Give the backbone structure.
Amino acid sequence: QKEVEQNSGPLSVPEGAIASLNCTYSDRGSQSFFWYRQYSGKSPELIMFIYSNGDKEDGRFTAQLNKASQYVSLLIRDSQPSDSATYLCASDNAGNMLTFGGGTRLMVKP
Amino acid sequence: GAVVSQHPSRVICKSGTSVKIECRSLDFQATTMFWYRQFPKQSLMLMATSNEGSKATYEQGVEKDKFLINHASLTLSTLTVTSAHPEDSSFYICSAMASEANEKLFFGSGTQLSVL
């Protein structure tokens, strides 16, 4: 059973719109959550991490965490074609290992 | 920010040969490193967790005798694919945990292995 679930997409949004990426997790013991962006054929790069309920903003990115509902989301404002990538959600678990979701492919159309 | 160097970025080898992939943390010490493989259009799959000075912990279904992991220092971990076969062709990625950076995970650039 997967512990971190994401819609595989693709999620298609027009340039300039807000892209909303969602992730649910099953392990209530998870404390920190990470969003990685991965371009095709490249290694993932960390965008944001969040461990407190609520919102965390960094530039055009906002991570949202709701521990009661066990979901975490990533909002991308003013989406650009260069944001087109696969976004991986990950949660930590015992031993500080990360469990990754399957990733959501985002396509931003000019 | 923290940098993880992975080498080589691409390797093509004949079936039956062994391939070694290096993963180095350049500006921080990493007591824990992770090795993943990724098939096209799929997410990362954790293969093993490597702790400096001790044996690696392999995920279920990963052959430890085929994928040899050595973590001899706080800045270097290696993955050796022994007697590689075409089904081992994949994108291999390492990551290192930076204790000094709130234990965030930083990824190497990946190695595309093609076994002919």
Q: What stands out?
A: Chain A has a mean pLDDT of 89. The longest strand of chain A covers residues 85-92.
